[in-house]
Amino acid sequence: AKSVGRGTFRFFEPEMDAQLQARRMLEVDLRKALANGEFELFYQPQVDIRRKAITGYEALLRWRHPERGIVSPAEFIPVAEDIGLISPLGEWVVHEACREASGWPAPLKVAVNLSPVQFRNRNLVQCVKQALEESGLCPSRLELEITESVLLQDNDTTLATLHQLRKLGLRIAMDDFGTGYSSLSYLRSFPFDKIKIDQSFVQGLSSRADCLAIVQSIAGLGASLGMSTVAEGVETEDQLVQLRAAGCTEAQGYYFGRPRPARDLTHSLEDFGPV
Ligand code: C2E
Ligand code: CA
Ligand code: CA
Ligand code: CA
User: Fold this and answer.
1) Ligand 1 centroid, distance to 35 Cα (angstroms)
2) For 116-167, what is each residue's pLDDT tens digit?
3) How far apart are CA 195 and CA 211, in angstroms?
4) How far apart are CA 190 and CA 199, in angstroms?
């Protein structure tokens, strides 16, 4: 009888060890990755639905792990946030995105994702300012994407930081809109320039009436508040047609093109795919 407890323990122990060990290895590799130049930004086009023209690109981080190949940001960003690496990594992202975008024809924009954790760093505004100055990118061509969780950790400093960033002349977009808890009150607390409609609503368009109703409401809300609305995760022509009818101003997704390295961008929609 005494062996049951121990037997159970022994059964789980190696597995837990393996998980912990994998996590430790990821942490060790991640700490070296920045210095080793293993990160790269991919860019996915955002398209003006009426004009059918590229307005800019969202920068999406990729990690070329020497043994594992490309690792998804969904896997390593939470770890980078945990171990205090997101600030230096995020600084690299802002600098790299501004530097690369400064070589694109104006007025093409670049959108950069910011982690909520970066807002706890006092140097965030200074870092963005420096990236703009060093690259010479016109601030109106930089957009920062934040999620509602940034405002969740709210205190006055978060809002003050957002206002300081805005004062630099750049734009602020709310990402993954509709997935949080009280999106509408957040829209009141800060004047966003853009709302990104979460891809879960876009992907439900063909099969679910509620998704269409939600997309229409968000597009209408954006229009009346003077914010542009971007639909994320657009994969089919049918979705695009519905989004246009709903009044969305921009679209982004595999239908127009997957994220690509900067060197592969031609800034022509035809080179990306249909439309
Ligand atoms: P996100 O900001 O919501 O980015 C959109 C994600 O949807 C990207 O995944 C993109 O590749 C994917 N996507 C685009 N079009 C489609 C489509 O038509 N269908 C489908 N199924 N997916 C599509 P990705 O690149 O794996 O990035 C995942 C998340 O990682 C991002 O979600 C963002 O939260 C985070 N992330 C990426 N780069 C950065 C970064 O530089 N900094 C920070 N803090 N987070 C980042
Ligand atoms: Ca985003
Ligand atoms: Ca998103
Ligand atoms: Ca997301």
Assistant:
1) 23
2) 999 999 999 999 999 999 999 999 999 999 998 888 876 788 999 999 999 9
3) 16
4) 23
